[in-house]
Amino acid sequence: MSVAASFGLAYGAFVALALAMERHQEQIAGRRLGVWASRAWRCGGIVLLGSSLAVCLMQALPSMAVTVWLGLLSLAALALALSFTYRPAWVRLTAALSTLLACLAWLLSS
Amino acid sequence: MTDSAGLRATAGFRSFQKPSRYALLVASRAFIAIAGGYALSCAVAAASAVALAATGMPRADAAMAATMLAFSAHALAAMWAFGCATVRRAAAWVLIPAAMLALAAWLSGVGLTGVAGLAGVAGLAGIES
Amino acid sequence: MRPDGRPEGIRQSMSWLHTWSGLLLGWLLYAVFFTGTLSYFRAEIDQWMRPELHRSVPDAQTLERSLETMARLAPGAQSWSLTLPGARRSAVEASWREPGAAQGRAGVKRAFLDAGTGQPIEVRETRGGSFLYRFHFELYAMPRIWGRWIVGVATMMMFVALLSGIVTHRKIFTDFFTFRPRKGQRSWLDAHNATAVLGLPFHLMITFSGLLLFMFQLMPWGVDAVYDGDRRAYQTEVRGGQVAAAAASVPRPTGRRSAEPRAAETVTSEIVPVAPLVEAARQQWPEYGVGGVTVSSPGRPEATIELREGGGVSLADRGRARRIVHDGLTGARIDGPAETASSAVRASYNVLTSAHLGRFSGPALRWLLFLSGLMGTAMVATGLVLWVVKRLPERRKLGRTPFGHRLVEHLNVGLIAGLSIATAAYFWLNRLLPASLEGRADWEIRGFFIVWLLCLIHPLFRRPRPAWREQFMMAALLFAGLPLLNPMTGGVSLAASLAHRQWSLAGFDLAMLALAALHGAIAWWLGRAVVAQGRARPGSGRLAMVHAPQAPERMP
């Protein structure tokens, strides 16, 4: 459960970080975002990454938690890269869903 | 980019009369990276193990940390051997520290004449280009 | 490096270094990654390749029955060690050491016990997943030291390739989520970049820890410098307080426990009932339960019972399973000396190497390591293919294919696609070779290499693209056939293993189907591109891989 939550948050985090990148803004938001919006998304992405790590840390000892978290990051980033290539229109929806579901999963399990 | 490099290397290989300058350059940098790098990493391992143990770190930790440093040093030496502007500079940057560290380790009581010898041989051969 | 030897920028020189350090031993690295990734599921492969064990179904009395059998099989043994069934295995693996047995692995006897009846099961002779695991770092058919040196050198080259790749990758953040298919060379570069960068923590960890695991062979000078060559002292000191605790439970073959024959001594004392001890341990270890039990000096007054957790909770502790030791007669707990915390340096080593080995990992971490390993395997493969694809424009300009290019192209097919076929063939041979055949374990392995060799010869007679397609089709067929072959040759079918929740067996069959799908998809994709040949202009897209019909293309 916490693994799924951590993954969902990581995926959401990466979408937020992608929104801070010019290349992907068109794909997700349909337009270019301003400097401040990009910065805001970058901060949000980092916060979500942190919470993804926190979820892992609450369930396991640090060495195990960080290792699992890094593995989940790779998976989430790969999932997003493939989404951008094959289903860019779904990215917004999947990001919102995954972040929400992750929060839900975490709340239910704690 | 250097896509044609592979092609030229093949062309250079074909003329068995005399190895092309390119092949010689590659060979000397490779020698510095592989043999020189290994000599450097052995010297780093020995010298840093002794140095770390002298600062009070437990022996086992010093040995382990030194080994980790040594592997990193080898990789960095290989990158340096090929990243340096000239072969001469690459040889100097890799082999002189190797010799110095080997000497330092040897002087502190560790028998590493083999490493020092290897570094010396590598130095003599590598500067030849 | 420029042909004229003039200086160039750091990105260019690192690009050259990355290409050559990757290419020279690239095929070996592919095989190392491939077999290493499979080795994360070594226990599952071992189990699938011994169909005699498939019908073993564990229940609550498994441990009691096994201990009774051990009392029958090895009454005077120095110790009994049982690995209990769980998610990864369905039979009990027993090992024991007779009195007066040889030191080390030679003195250990093994047997498989049925979890339902407790009886020993006669299994076919096979190296199982251990062949793939050992090949991963020792290769085969050569002295162990040579194999380890070769793999060690390849690992250092991999490390250099990784670091130079990072330096040379100009747009590492911009291209983070970028994969553009159907653009020929660009797509291959994107795929190589994506699999490399997205799995970078894993790749760096696996490579560096691979070097560390070989440190006594590759770089013993650090230890030798401070210990004056006394490596045993290093081993002792590095374990710290853990040495004493281990000695209390498992008799080490160092003469600590008397190895003289005790055959004459009758078993006088009964062992204390183990079930309540196991139950108490399960309460303490809710995540993994009890994975194994070791009884030392069974039946004698000094007997001890050690229970091992079924998984590791911390990598900083070498990923070790936690242990509880009980007195064999009274059942009282024996507390070992307090475990000393690892220093930062030691913890780093432990985390890196435990993550590499993945022993005692739970399912989540194991699957993540496996998937990361797949990414690494794809990284090496895409790199090797990219080398060929990048040089196609040159070949067209030259009007012919230089020997080196043709060689790499040829080796790519046989060594990359061929490895999949050889692995599937290994599993097929495990079932097709008669169970009673003399030396069948060696024949399974020989078959693996023979098939791999045939895959190397096949591209000699085909153009590259059809060769790739045919080999991937072959691999897909072979993998898909395995879940069908399984029940026909003594194993438990996928439906049955799912119904009985034998996840290890079901997982193997499902993984084979997934691999079949993957290889089939690649073969289909390779075939589809040929159809599109007529529409696109030459030199663009995936067609970069299809050769223009020029007479001198074939290998002489």
Write down the oligomeric state.
heterotrimer
Rounded mean pLDDT score of chain B? 80
Span from first to last CA of chain A? 10 Å
Shape of chain A: elongated
End-to-end CA span of chain B: 24 Å
- Tell me the β content of chain A: under 5%
In short:
Chain A is mainly α and 110 residues long.
Topology:
The complex is a heterotrimer of chains A (110), B (129) and C (556).
Chain A lengths: L1 H18 L2 H8 L5 H25 L2 H25 L4 H19 L1
Helix pairs in contact in A: 1-3, 1-4, 1-5, 3-4
Chain B lengths: L2 H12 L6 H34 L4 H25 L3 H21 L5 H14 L3
Helix pairs in contact in B: 2-3, 2-4, 2-5, 3-4, 4-5
Chain C lengths: L9 H14 L2 H14 L2 H7 L13 H12 L5 E5 L8 E6 L10 E6 L6 E2 L7 H10 L5 H25 L16 H14 L1 H14 L1 H4 L2 H7 L3 H9 L2 H8 L25 H10 L5 E7 L7 E9 L8 E7 L5 E2 L9 H14 L5 H28 L1 H7 L4 H30 L7 H18 L6 H25 L5 H6 L3 H29 L25
Helix pairs in contact in C: 1-6, 2-5, 2-6, 2-15, 2-17, 3-5, 3-21, 6-8, 7-15, 8-14, 15-17, 17-18, 17-19, 19-21
What report would you give on this structure?
The complex is a heterotrimer of chains A (110), B (129) and C (556). Chain A is built from five helices and no strands. By secondary structure, chain A is mostly helical. Chain A has one domain. With 129 residues, chain B is mainly α. Chain B has one domain. In chain B, 82% of the residues lie in helices and 0% in strands. Chain B has five helices and no strands. In chain B, helix 4 packs antiparallel against helix 5. Chain B is elongated. The two termini of chain B are 24 Å apart. Chain C has 21 helices and eight strands. In chain C, helix 2 packs across helix 6. Chain C starts with 9 loop residues before the first helix and ends in a 25-residue tail after the last helix. The C terminus of chain C is likely disordered.
